[in-house]
Design brief:
11 helices; Rossmann fold; 40% helix; alpha/beta; 344 residues; binds UDP-4-deoxy-4-formamido-beta-L-arabinopyranose; UDP-galactose 4-epimerase, domain 1; 2 domains; binds nicotinamide-adenine-dinucleotide; 13 strands
């Protein structure tokens, strides 16, 4: 048996896919999640895929006492992957304190406990949102951090700084900060996937929910951008590919494969795809005609951004492998499974 890894927010979208890959790699996974944006169904899904049920405790990372009790109950946790956070950009503008409290306190509590319980490293879920509107694409990790466009985005910037400052202060831990571009898709088994609460804010769940009839019509926010077809361009990254990068990051940290105590990596494909191109891919792979219309721009949207993933490719030895066709198809299969189960 390999090391014990604590996965915060592991009942959620990216965390559940990562738990699968960690278990497949032989790690023992302990998931904590307060289920504020997920259900324990994903724990069943992880078990069905891997044949092994991860340890699961319903726990709020803001609760320092409960968190400390967890480290006492499960001795020898050697690494943490910290996914737990509130992540809705629009909601963060309406409820900034909720976002600052949840996203900052959770990390602070974990960092505080790490040295005492001899946890050697933490992988942190950051976002390409820290780059704002890039001066050039593809964008690499040396690009400047721009003023955040939302409290959510600001929490990611501040979290990165908190980690760096804590390590600078002499804390004997390591960290790998992963800046995700736009994660999409689901596990090919359709046992786990993305299940947003209420009306989806992100493009792919809105597409699949429209195609299945839960939503009437998709609004495409703007076709007058300075891009080849006028719609925004993003770097859509397959969630299983993304999950695999976390296993590599954990191997690297726990195996002391780098002298750097903090490392930052972009996780993207390196290809930009427009919103209209993605819709096209969806129609092709699903055989469904999507009901959509072009509407005005959404406030705060970035025109175009895609990753330069060369550092992750060369240093981590990680590359996004799945095609966008297979990825979009996996999202559609997940939607069909949700319908089959009567969930949506
Ligand atoms: P998600 O909402 O599906 O997963 C997050 C999980 O954390 C949820 O299950 C939620 O219930 C849990 N959680 C929230 N606050 C908690 C707390 N205080 N204690 C315990 N559990 C808590 O989101 P996701 O898409 O899987 O995102 C995971 C991480 O990746 C987040 O930090 C997010 O900000 C980051 N990220 C996501 C994207 C994206 O597009 N999905 C992009 C970049 C970065
Ligand atoms: C993608 C494109 C929309 C919905 C957000 C966060 C970012 C990161 C990922 C966490 C945009 C367009 C969308 C719709 C549309 N999350 N769109 N109609 O905005 O790139 O990034 O999620 O860190 O921080 O800001 O992702 O999926 O919301 O949008 O036309 O109904 O799809 O305008 O161009 P985004 P998204």
């Amino acid at each position: 048996m390999k090391n014990r890894i604590l996965v915060t927010g592991g009942a959620g979208y990216i965390g559940s896919h990562t738990a699968v890959e960690l278990q497949n790699a032989g790690y023992e996974v302990i998931i904590i999640d307060d289920l504020s944006n997920s259900t324990a169904d994903s724990i069943d899904g992880i078990e069905r895929i891997t044949g092994k049920r991860p340890i699961f405790e319903k726990l709020d990372c803001n609760d320092f006492v409960a968190l400390e009790a967890l480290f006492q109950k499960y001795e020898g946790i050697s690494g943490i992957i910290h996914f737990a956070a509130s992540k809705a950009v629009g909601e963060s503008v309406q409820k900034p304190l909720l976002y600052y409290r949840n996203n900052l306190n959770s990390l602070i509590n974990l960092l505080d406990l790490m040295p005492k319980y001899k946890v050697s490293g933490i992988v942190f879920s950051s976002s390409c949102t820290v780059y704002g509107e890039p001066d050039q694409n593809p964008i690499d990790e040396t690009a400047p951090i721009k003023p955040a466009m939302s409290p959510y985005g600001n929490t990611k910037q501040i979290n990165e700084e908190i980690i760096a400052d804590f390590i600078k202060s002499g804390a004997d831990i390591k960290s790998i900060i992963l800046r995700y571009f736009n994660p999409i898709g689901a596990h090919p088994s359709a046992e786990i996937g993305e299940l947003p609460n209420g009306v989806p804010q992100n493009l792919v769940p809105f597409i699949t929910q429209t195609a299945i009839g839960v939503r009437q019509e998709l609004s495409v926010f703007g076709n007058d951008y300075n891009t080849p077809d006028g719609s925004c361009v993003r770097d859509f990254i397959n969630v299983v590919d993304l999950a695999k990068a976390h296993v590599i990051a954990i191997d690297r940290m726990l195996g002391n494969k780098s002298d750097d105590k903090v490392e930052i990596f972009n996780l993207g494909t390196g290809n930009g795809l427009s919103v209209l191109q993605l819709i096209n891919v969806f129609e092709k792979v699903s055989g469904e005609k999507l009901n959509y219309k072009i509407v005005g721009r959404r406030g705060g949207d970035i025109e175009k951004i895609w990753a330069d993933p060369v550092k992750a490719n060369t240093v981590l030895g990680w590359t996004a492998k799945e095609t966008v066709e297979d990825t979009v198809l996996s999202a559609w299969k997940w939607q069909l499974k949700l319908r089959e189960k009567g969930i949506m």
